[in-house]
Please model this.
Amino acid sequence: MVLLHSIIAIIMKGLTLISPTLNTKVQYFRYFHKRLDLKHPVTSNEKTLWLKLNTYYNNPLITQCADKYAVREYVKQCGCEDILNDLLGVWERPEDIDFSKLPNRFVLKNTYGCAMNMIVQDKSVLDIPTAIKQMRPWLHSTFHLYASEMQYAAIPKRIIAERFLESDNGGIPEDYKIYCCDGQPYYVMVCVGRDRANGIHPKFYYLDLEGNLQRHMTQDGIDAPADFHYDKPEGWEYMIECAKKLTKPFPYVRCDFYICQGKVYFGELTFTPSKGLDNCKLPYTDKLIGDLIHLPINR
Model:
């Protein structure tokens, strides 16, 4: 199975080198078993793929905001510097990291792509040589070629360290994913109970801006008890205001945050959620969010 996935990845990346549009159409058919209509996109997946192919590949602001280091300057320019997590260091190579100067708990990230993170909750038990070995491939990754996410292509590959954010009980905090169009937030998806270390999958709930459950937008919402109630944390309203500022230039983007002890922290701006290939999203939700995305008139 691992060999099969490797072969598929090589093929998909090769297709991107030939034509990002061709690769995107092949990928869409793999995930949805139907042809991608780029002339008349309707759903959020379809419109995400249209934006990816027609605007993201040559937009310097999109590239900056997809860069986990460079986006910090954009956040500052938007007047939201106070929500940036503490930056502990930036390095060109993992061998350059002086672990002795890092606190006991921290997070390492590749500035490029996604799923290249290392959460360290106890430095005293960290195998540093192994950690360095694990990070080396990050700097040679061609992640963007797999799904033709060309907004990542020009990002310098570096490693950053940020302070470990923890919930009230010392674990990983809940994250809030706000779906925004042209600076207007519409829905907040809350991931509850995330625990990767123990293989526990979170539940996903869409809430409106007042924190009310949008029951029919996820299966977890449909299955939620009739008396389900989500208590908005302190900092909720400020998080929404920051989302408006940060997403104003973009027709569609997901703005991710954490809230710890009432303080809001910026996570990232995600322009192609689930690569625009989210076949786990309910059709109702895919169409609902798609209706909110207004593509350029002259397309």
Summary: The chain is about 30% helix and 20% strand. Residues 193 and 202 are 5 Å apart (CA to CA). Residues 2-18 form the longest helix (17 residues). The beta strands are 87-91, 106-110, 117-120, 159-163, 175-181, 184-192, 203-207, 253-260, 263-270.
